[in-house]
Structures are given as structure tokens and as C-alpha cells.
Write a structure and sequence with these properties.
It is a single chain. With 619 residues, the chain is an all-alpha fold. The radius of gyration is 37 Å and the shape is globular.
């Protein structure tokens, strides 16, 4: 019966549909549209009395005559738009129509105030939150690590981080903290927070990471601080055009000569070659920048045009090498004159820049890799790759490949003694630690043997420079207690049952031939910071070495407080601040003690162990 009812219902529906079609189309309009409401009947009124009209003839665009009732049909134009208002006058220096037609699009936009404030659609714009490169899943610190920390403390720590970090592993830890996706502390502008971090990365030599960091902020949100940091990062990495979107959106954020030259270069690569040439010629004539800077900009901008204009680069009279001159010379393949490059520590900035700029000749990149590796900018694998490229290149003489050949022998010599001999030669000289980074994987391939005990300390230091602690620990059963190799392993050991024997530390001190027994002082600081030395022994060794390890300061109280609250990011920033310096001689055992202890307490024990072992290796 139910099935029959359904069928009958369907038949009824079909029947009603056929009847509806037979009658005609159904009216689908709502009743309100079908039956409009009744209109009020107008009451008769007296016709308006005609008013005198002006004898002035009607002109197009004039207001329409008032409609009955006094309401104008069209709203009249404001005074001055026509009729009897004052005429609109243009400035006396306003361009003519011919001049407007000859202008570039950017000049017209500037003239009429049409420059866009945004270069990204509204739906694609990013919030100024969690600015950075490394997420928590990628090894970065938690985004809210610094939100509840005092903004003044974070700002002071970042502003004071204005140079390199003496420790390679301290550098790596600091880079990780600065590159993490972090929210700004309460009370600090997020863009300013990003600017301070980018500036600190530039000062460390991590311009590639700084460039990635500033790219996480939309160009329309840049302020002066972030613009300066981004400009330095792009120059140091040789990416001259990378900051052009910001230069177009924020053209007035800077007024110096290099910024004006950059805008002219950007115009050339946007197809506005005539405007670029005029701006650069004007810069040369008015002296807004030194001639060498303008000539380099003209050569670079000319590469985007028709190439018909030759620009000679003359270094006569140039007494200083600046990042602008260095970056453009490298990008253009212009050879730098002898003597212009600074000596000593000042040269390290350009050494690291050489490594980061792809246009740098390969031999120069390889020679600068030792500095970058010791600093922490390059990994061991990257250093090996650069030397492998040099070895395979036909553009260089055999004597220029001497170190690359030694590195090849360190990996491929037929005997362990031959491999160790090659490494020993590489470790000689001022760049010894950078070379130990480079040979880390070759050192890990040397078999553990009593025959090689004389080189055990160097091999272990090389492995630990690249974090190969498990490979290094295989020497634990061979090296004698109290030796330098034993000290490195006592610090690098991941898990240890009980403290080290004070007698072994005494033996280490007795055998220590370093200046001022700095290796011994660092060993005691590292062991105590890792809780591998009794506090009573720490005091005794401190008296023996003439060091008060536990003396507090404003910095030590801050990093101790941060470790109590288990704030890894803040401890990392303060640890990096405590390791600021241009050479390892500036590192003190007391600073090392507080750094290792604080890192260990917040769960960064791997970094603490590597920093402590590095201190002994480089002490």
C-alpha cells in the first residue's frame, strides 16, 4: 500500500504539472511587485511664479534648472569647478603636455601622487607576527618565547650584538635564535624587532639569513631601521636588485647618495632606462655620491639597457673600500685594486661576503672559506664542496690548488698515516680551526688506534668542530686520562655517570702548555657548568688558576634568571652577547662557566657541550 501511495502521489504531481502547462505560464513575481502600493493623490497647487533668469547663455556642464519644488535635479559643482568660481591655476613649473608624454611612468606617479602604497594584494598581505625563518618544527625556538619578556632587556641585548661571536658553536646558536619565527615582546614594534634581529645577523656575517628574515615582512611595512638592515644584507650577498620593491614603495625613507643610486638602478631594470640615465647623470653632476660609486651604478644599470653606453671604472683617488663598491665590483666582475682591501679583522667582513656572492671568483671564495668556516657561517660539507670545485676546475694552476689537493689526500690517501699527515699540514697556520672544520669528516674516518694517539687531540677537535661527537667518543677507551684529548671527550660526552675525577683534572693542568693555562681554565669552567665537577673542586681549581668563576655581574644575573625560568631563546641571546668579540682571546673562563651552565639548565646541553669543548680546543 505504501508503494502504491507513492506511485499515486507521483501521478498526481504529473497531472498537476500538465494542467499548469495547459493553463499558461505561472506568475512568479511576489505580490508586492505584482500589485504596487497605491500612490497618494496629489493636491492641486498654484503654479510657481516665474523668476527672472540670467541672460548668460547656458554652457555645457552648468547646473540644471531647479525642478518644481526647489530641489535641483543635478547637484551643482563646487565653486571653482565652472561657472562664476575662481579659475583653477597650475603651478608655474608644471610640465607641459609634451613633457608629460616624455616622462616615465614612475615620474608621472610621483607628480600626481599616484605611487602605490602596496605591491601585494590585500588578501596576500602578511601580518607582522612570527617573523622569521625557522619554525619550531624546523629547529627554531617557540614563537612566544620573548612575548612576556621585558622589551627593554630584549632591545638592549639585540642592540649590543653588533659584532661577531668568538665561538663557532655560539655563533650557530645565536643564528638559530635570531632566525626563529618569533613574536615581538609586548611594547615593542614587530617591525623594529625584526630590524634589530636583522642588524645583529648582519654584524655576525649572516647576511644571507638576514636577507631571508627581512623578506618575511611586506615592503609596505618597512621602517628606516628595517630598510637599513635589508640594504646591508642585500649588498653583502651581492643581490643588488633584491631590495628594489622596497626602494620603489619607500623611496623617501632614505635620502643618502647610495639610496638614490639604487633607485636609478632599479628604474633601469624596470624598463625606465631614460629616467635612470638622467638620474645617474644628475648624481654625477651634483656630487650626491663619489664618482666611483656613480660609475659603478652606471655600469650596472647599463647592463639592463641597450648596452650602447660605455662606462670606464677608474679607481684613482679611491682610498676606501665600502660595501657598495665591493658588491657592485663583484657583481660586474671588476677587479679590485691592490691595497684597497683592508687588513686584519676588518678584512673578515669582505672575506665572508666573498663566500656569499656567487659572482666572486672561485679561488677567492675558497681562500675566504676558512674564515667563514671558523666563524660558523659555512658548514664542513660546504667547505669540502668549494675545494672540490676548485680541484676539478681547469681555470687555475696546480699550485693554486695545493690545499684542495691536501684535502683530497686527507680523504683518499691509501693509509691512515697518509691521511693524518695531510690533515696535519692543513691545520698549520692562523686558519687552523677553520681547516679543522673542513677536515671533520676525514678525521672521523681515521681508525681508532694507539698508533695515532699523538694526533688524537687534533682529530677529536676536528670532529667536534662539526658536531661529530659520537665519532669522537670512540676514542674514549684509548686516550690517557688527563690529556687534552681526554679533556675534550670529558666535555663532549653526552651522558656521564658521576663527576670527573679531580686527579685527572690536576693532570690536565700539569700538562697544559697553553698561554696562561687558558685550556685548563676553560676545562674547569666547562666541567663545572655541565655539573661534572664538585663545587668544592671548582673553588679549589679557581684558587689554583686565579679565577673567581662564580663572581656575578649584571649580565650573569640576567642569564641566570632566564635559565631559572627555562627560557631557551632569551638564554641563547644573552649567551651570544656574552661571547661577543673578534678573537677567542677575548673570551673569559668566567663567562664560559655561566654560559655553559645556563644552556645546560634550559635543555640546550648539546650546544653547551660543544661550546665548552671548542673553548678547550681553541684556548
Amino acid at each position: 500500500m505504501k508503494r502504491l501511495g507513492l506511485l499515486l502521489g507521483g501521478a498526481t504531481l504529473a497531472l498537476s504539472s500538465s494542467l499548469a502547462m495547459a493553463v499558461g505560464p505561472e506568475d512568479l513575481l511576489p505580490p508586492a511587485f505584482r500589485d504596487p502600493p497605491p500612490q497618494a493623490t496629489p493636491t492641486p497647487t498654484q503654479a510657481p511664479t516665474p523668476t527672472p533668469t540670467s541672460t548668460r547663455p547656458t554652457t555645457p556642464g552648468a547646473p540644471s534648472a531647479p525642478a518644481p519644488g526647489g530641489t535641483p535635479v543635478v547637484q551643482p559643482l563646487p565653486d571653482g569647478g565652472g561657472g562664476g568660481g575662481a579659475p583653477v591655476t597650475l603651478p608655474t613649473d608644471f610640465p607641459t603636455l609634451e613633457e608629460l608624454e616624455a616622462m616615465e611612468a614612475s615620474q608621472v606617479n610621483d607628480l600626481f601622487g599616484l605611487r602605490p602604497r602596496f605591491d601585494i594584494p590585500a588578501a596576500a598581505r602578511r601580518a607582522t607576527e612570527e617573523i622569521g625563518v625557522l619554525s619550531l618544527a624546523e629547529g627554531g625556538f617557540a614563537s612566544a618565547s620573548l612575548v612576556n619578556q621585558p622589551a627593554a632587556l630584549v632591545r638592549a641585548a639585540l642592540e649590543a650584538s653588533d659584532g661577531p661571536v668568538v665561538s663557532r658553536w655560539g655563533h650557530i646558536l645565536m643564528r638559530r635564535a635570531l632566525a626563529s619565527r618569533l613574536d615581538a615582546p609586548q611594547g615593542m614594534d614587530p617591525v623594529q624587532f625584526a630590524a634589530l634581529r636583522a642588524q645583529a645577523l648582519n654584524a655576525m656575517g649572516e647576511s644571507a639569513v638576514a636577507r631571508a628574515l627581512v623578506q618575511d615582512v611586506d615592503g609596505s611595512n618597512y621602517n628606516r631601521g628595517l630598510t637599513d638592515a635589508a640594504f646591508d644584507a642585500y649588498l653583502t650577498t651581492g643581490d643588488i636588485l633584491g631590495i628594489c620593491p622596497v626602494a620603489r614603495l619607500q623611496s623617501d625613507v632614505r635620502e643618502d647618495g647610495e639610496w638614490q643610486l639604487l633607485q636609478a638602478i632599479c628604474s633601469s631594470y624596470l624598463g625606465e632606462s631614460r629616467s635612470s640615465e638622467r638620474d645617474l647623470d644628475r648624481a654625477l653632476g651634483t656630487g650626491v655620491a663619489p664618482e666611483i660609486d656613480v660609475r659603478l651604478a652606471q655600469r650596472y644599470a647599463g647592463a639592463a639597457g641597450d648596452g650602447g653606453r660605455a662606462v670606464n671604472i677608474e679607481w684613482d683617488g679611491t682610498e676606501e673600500l665600502t660595501p657598495w663598491r665591493f658588491a657592485l665590483a663583484r657583481a660586474l666582475g671588476v677587479e679590485l685594486p691592490d691595497g684597497l682591501r683592508p687588513d686584519g679583522y676588518a678584512a673578515q667582513h669582505y672575506d665572508i661576503s666573498d663566500v656569499m656572492i656567487p659572482a666572486t671568483p672561485l679561488l677567492d671564495r675558497v681562500n675566504a672559506a676558512d674564515t667563514a668556516g671558523a666563524r660558523g657561517v659555512l658548514s664542513a660539507a660546504a667547505m669540502v664542496d668549494l675545494n672540490a670545485l676548485l680541484w676539478a676546475s681547469d681555470a687555475y694552476q696546480q699550485n693554486e690548488k695545493a690545499n684542495a689537493e691536501l684535502l683530497r689526500e686527507a680523504y683518499l690517501a691509501s693509509s691512515a698515516q697518509g691521511r693524518i699527515a695531510a690533515m696535519r699540514q692543513l691545520w698549520e697556520g692562523d686558519e687552523s680551526y677553520g681547516r679543522k672544520v673542513m677536515t671533520a669528516y676525514a678525521a672521523a674516518r681515521v681508525p681508532v688506534s694507539a698508533e695515532n694517539l699523538d694526533d688524537a687531540a687534533g682529530l677529536i677537535a676536528s670532529m667536534l668542530a662539526a658536531g661529530l661527537d659520537r665519532n669522537a667518543m670512540q676514542w674514549g677507551g684509548v686516550v690517557p686520562s688527563g690529556s687534552e684529548a681526554w679533556g675534550l671527550l670529558a666535555l663532549a660526552q653526552e651522558q656521564r655517570n658521576g663527576n670527573v675525577d679531580a686527579g685527572d683534572v690536576d693532570s690536565f693542568i700539569d700538562n697544559d702548555g697553553s698561554d696562561g693555562q687558558r685550556k685548563s681554565a676553560f676545562l674547569v669552567a666547562g666541567l663545572a657548568g655541565l655539573d661534572r665537577l664538585d663545587q668544592s673542586d671548582l673553588a679549589d681549581f679557581g684558587d689554583q688558576l686565579g679565577i673567581n668563576y662564580t663572581r656575578e655581574s649584571a649580565w650573569s644575573s640576567k642569564i641566570e634568571a632566564a635559565s631559572v625560568y627555562r627560557n631557551q631563546a632569551l638564554v641563547a641571546l644573552l649567551a651570544g652577547l656574552g661571547m661577543q668579540g673578534v678573537s677567542w682571546e677575548q673570551m673569559t673562563p668566567r663567562h664560559l662557566y655561566f654560559i655553559v651552565r645556563s644552556l645546560n639548565q634550559v635543555g640546550l646541553s648539546a650546544e653547551a657541550r660543544m661550546i665548552a669543548a671548542e673553548a678547550v680546543a681553541r684556548g
